[in-house]
Each structure stands twice: as structure tokens, then as C-alpha cells.
Design goal:
By secondary structure, this protein is mainly beta. It has two domains: about 180 residues, L,D-transpeptidase catalytic domain-like (Beta Barrel), CATH 2.40.440.10; about 80 residues, Roll (SH3 type barrels). Helix content is about 5%, strand content about 35%. The strands form four sheets. The protein has an eight-stranded mixed sheet, covered by helices on one side. A six-stranded antiparallel sheet has the order 1-8-2-5-6-7, with no helix packed on it. Strands 3-4 form a two-stranded antiparallel sheet. The longest helix is centred in the last third of the chain and has 8 residues.
Length: about 260
């Protein structure tokens, strides 16, 4: 994810996030018109993906405390967020309220300990964690999750434990492999052009390349995105990002929330 996408986003609109309640409508979403995808789906199951949700919402507001099975807890900050190396310790860093792409700051919650939350940090090295004060964030539940299988080169989307779609993907080339681990969606971006290099939609992850520290003006952030090269699907050809058919990118935009967990293995 690099300078090219950043430049495109200067003219694209990012929807305003909001808790989606029942996740049946998106009243606060700003509509971005995207041309019809010229690439027909190939061996992709997208049954049931048309259910409407706010594309950039962080999920349903959490009022019950511990999330249920198959549900992920996400912390969202409305302002700059102090992060400590341990519960009760002085802050060691401050995360800006938004990402470099302008998305609201969300962090995946790993553990709750009293008034403190251990969170996954979207920075190098992959797997970094920190602690934030519970009072400094809003908590939301996310039902969706994604599993990436680098051997089979497939992406599977689950909603509340049920498979929603499975699709073939392109993954990192041997010289720039897709990193493995537990990540989450930190950006949801519309390019406004289905024929763009990134397809109509791109989803920045908390993951960073283990090989590239800089790519096209960016910091080597890994993402899931569409493509203008459908023949690359099923191949190991990217700089570490996961490419999906454009119809799948559009379907993911309608389903994913910021903070959606992504397992790559």
C-alpha cells in the first residue's frame, strides 16, 4: 500500500464510521460511485454477501462486557490515544486519532484486565502489543473474521462463525512473501475506479512486510485489495498484499468493519 493509493484517496471519500446497531443499514455512509466491475467472478462463492452494513463501522456497541464466542472486541479512540507497555505503567507512545489514510483509530483487544485493555498494535514488528486505559476508548463487537490460507491461496470470510464467502487470491511473491500471523483491518478505502491497480476497494491491515520497509512511498503496510490484473489471482506475485477479484473486493466492502480480525497462515 503506497503513494499511488494515497494520491487516489485525495479524490475518494471515506465513509464516516458509526456503530451499526443491528447492522442492517448504513445511514451514515457516504456513497462512493464505482464503475461496474468488468471482471466476472471466477470460482468464487459470494452467496449472502449483499447484506447491507455500514462499510467503515467498527461494529455494534458493546454493553455486555465479555464478547461471546466468535465475536471480537475492538477498541476505538475518538482522539489521540496513550499506549503503555503494561497495565498501570506510564505511556510509552501516543497513537494519532486517525491512520495515515484518515481512518478512525481502532485496535484489536487481546485481553481485559480491570480498567486496562491489552491491544494489538498496527506497527512493526508484527505482533506488537500495548495497553490502553478502558476509559479512553469505546468498545465494539465485530462478528466477522477473515482467514487467509497461503498454501491453498484462498480467502474465507466468516460471519458469526458461518462461512460467507471463499475466493481464490494472489499472495506475495517468494521475494516478498505475505507475512503470517494475527492481524486486523485498520483502513477501508475506495479508489473510485474498478480498473485501478488496487481495484475498487482496498483494506489496509495492521500487518507490515517482513522484507520491504518501504514500498511506493509507503511503509510496507500489507493490505487486501482488488486488482486490474485478474490473471494474477491464484498466483504468488504481489509485494505481500492479498489480491482478490474485484467483485469480492466490493462484497468485502459491504461486510467488513474496521477491526475485523484477519488470520494469515
Amino acid at each position: 500500500m503506497g503513494a499511488r493509493l494515497r494520491a487516489l484517496l485525495l479524490t475518494a471519500t471515506v465513509a464516516v464510521p458509526a456503530a451499526c446497531g443491528g447492522c442492517s443499514s448504513a445511514p451514515d455512509e457516504t456513497t462512493v460511485t464505482v464503475p461496474t466491475d468488468p471482471v466476472p467472478p471466477t470460482s468464487t462463492s459470494v452467496a449472502g454477501v449483499a447484506a447491507g452494513v455500514d462499510p467503515t463501522a467498527t461494529g455494534t456497541a458493546d454493553t455486555a462486557g465479555t464478547p461471546g464466542e466468535g465475536v471480537t472486541l475492538v477498541a476505538r479512540s475518538a482522539g489521540d490515544l496513550a499506549v503503555s507497555p503494561g497495565p498501570g505503567a506510564p505511556p510509552s507512545q501516543v497513537l494519532p486519532a486517525t491512520t495515515e489514510f484518515g481512518s478512525p483509530r481502532v485496535l484489536l483487544v487481546i485481553e481485559e484486565l480491570g480498567d486496562w485493555l491489552q491491544v494489538s498494535l498496527p506497527e512493526r514488528p508484527n505482533g506488537s502489543t500495548g495497553w490502553v486505559h478502558r476509559a479512553d476508548v469505546e468498545l465494539h463487537e465485530v462478528d466477522e473474521r477473515i482467514e487467509i490460507d497461503l498454501v491453498l491461496r484462498t480467502l474465507t470470510l466468516y460471519d458469526d462463525g458461518e462461512v460467507v464467502l471463499t475466493t481464490p487470491i494472489a499472495v506475495g511473491a517468494p521475494t516478498a512473501p505475505t507475512p503470517t500471523g494475527e492481524f486486523y483491518v485498520v483502513d477501508k478505502l475506495a479508489t473510485g475506479d474498478a480498473a485501478d491497480t488496487y481495484g475498487p476497494f482496498a483494506f489496509g491491515l495492521s500487518a507490515h512486510s517482513d522484507v520491504l520497509t518501504e514500498f511506493a512511498g509507503g511503509d510496507g503496510q500489507v493490505g487486501i485489495h482488488g486488482t486490474n490484473d485478474p490473471a494474477s489471482i491464484g498466483q504468488a506475485v504481489s509485494h505481500g498484499c492479498i489480491r482478490v477479484p474485484n467483485d469480492v473486493a466490493t462484497a468485502l466492502d459491504a461486510r467488513l468493519h474496521l477491526g475485523t480480525p484477519v488470520t494469515v497462515e
